[in-house]
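Report of the visiting student (M.T.), summer placement. My assignment was to run the structure pipeline on a short list of targets and document each run. The first record concerns Lipoprotein.
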Amino acid sequence: MRDGRTGVGVAALVGALALGPGLTGCTPDAVVQPSPSPSASSATPTETDAERQERLDYATAEKAYRTFRAEYGRVLRAGGAKEPTKVMKQTAGGEYLKEFAEVTEAYHGLGDHQEGKERILSVAPGAYSAAELELRVCEDSRSIRIIAKNGEQVGQGEMRQSIIQVRRISDAWKLWSGSGKKVSTCD
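After the run finished, the structure tokens were exported:
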């Protein structure tokens, strides 16, 4: 077991101090004391308040993104909706919510639904400010089939890479706008 600061095994240190004088023939005066370990602040750099806030903001924004995408998929598998759900409104706003609401309304109006689930392959941080941040995402919906009211497959999912702008609205982070493109693999 290591003490995490000096790299010296605690058991070895205790054993050496306890048994050392008797085994080496030295008097207790000759016992070498270990050097003091470095302070925690110099051993490991600490996270600043700003870095901590940025990390927490990205985590909250990613949770909003994953929550929205799960709800969006659920709604499309159920055949769409006349309007965005409460969860969709809690996690998105602006153009992002408007565009995805149009899709759910179209599914509802046409009687279409999806089969299969999207996989989120990656979510990475992009630009950051206290009011807005970017998420760089890769979504794989190639296993999704779009089924028409008559039971025929009318479409299929794709792999997409997107950059999503997420805004702080009051104390919540909401998906606000974004751009994406169809890709064969994610970078």
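The CA atoms of residues 115 and 145 lie 5 Å apart. The beta strands are 113-115, 119-128, 132-140, 145-147, 153-156, 159-169, 172-182. I thank the supervising group for their guidance throughout the placement.
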